[in-house]
Sequence to fold (373 residues):
Amino acid sequence: MSKQNQPTHNYLYYGTKTKADEVISFVNHVLETNLKSEVKGKKKTPVCIWGRHGIGKTEIVEALAKQIGYKFAYIAPAQFEEMGDLIGMPTIEDGKTSFRAPEWVPTEEGPGILLIDDVNRADDRILRGIMQLLQNFELVSWKLPEKWQIVLTANPDGGDYSVTPMDDAMLTRMMHISMEFEVKEWAKWAEKNDVDARGINFVLTYPEIVTGERTTPRTLVQFFETINDISDLKENYSLVKLLADSCLDANTAAAFITFVSQNLGKLIAPEKIVNANNFESQVLNHLKEVVLQKTVRVDILATICTRLVNYLTLNKIKPDKTQMDNLKNFIKIDFIPNDLRLTMAQDLVSSDNVALKMIMADPEIGKMLLKRM
Fold:
């Protein structure tokens, strides 16, 4: 889908618009600050992550909780039909009416994260009840256990989402940040979560297909999961097209079929580049075949470079002499544009993998990078 044909909306976000890793860093910092505040008897501040549907807001909160050892609880208030779903059911104890906490309320002491997902898809009554929870971490007759914190997600207002606007009284009870899709960050996540390599190659080569309408990171992963067991996509063209049409927009489905028909789904894997016994025959000749067409396919080169960097950094590969020679030979390929070469080298040397910094000791690579700088 061309940018001219994509729907345009005046979406309303709050906080800085940034990529997933900075969102995680921001949320983690606020969580730590809140724990210190609670010890001092001060109020904790909830965090709200804004962003379009399907970009992974929910997943990064759940993953963060697991990473830092927090307990995790989840509610989707859009599914609440009555106030009792939020505040609990009334009961009479010692002649007084009180409310028992609903089942979703955690009972164990934290630290923990209560995720209120798609908060502004709840109706106005529920939203007003949630505002009290945000202010005091309690509702009517019950409260969250100690060291529990609240993180919310929300879809932007001002567009095609069916959302309930939040007034300033509610907005000012939270800290806000907005999450945007960034293809390289998504590719790192996809590598960590064993997403089909052909799908990763497709998204990296054509990042513009992530339109945010039917084609979102979520629907793409759904599709890639269904093709994972199909070893030869070209031989199963009809089935692949049915699967693509079932969850992606028509333009994305057509683009993937073209991608497969051009054998781009079979781009050389990063581990084959690193572990080649003969770089020229196993790597260079393959790249020439798929990249050196009427015009140099820089998009394909960029995809292979990104996947190679991710493979080396995420797996903390410590290259032996042969692997390091292969890496250096790859970086020195003459038809790789120098800006792409520079970006790749910078990503390698700035990673946590100290062993990769050795590429800078190669005088030829140093000269190439200096020309660009």
Observations:
- The first strand starts at residue 17 and ends at 18.
- The chain has 16 helices and ten strands.
- The CA atoms of residues 73 and 136 lie 18 Å apart.
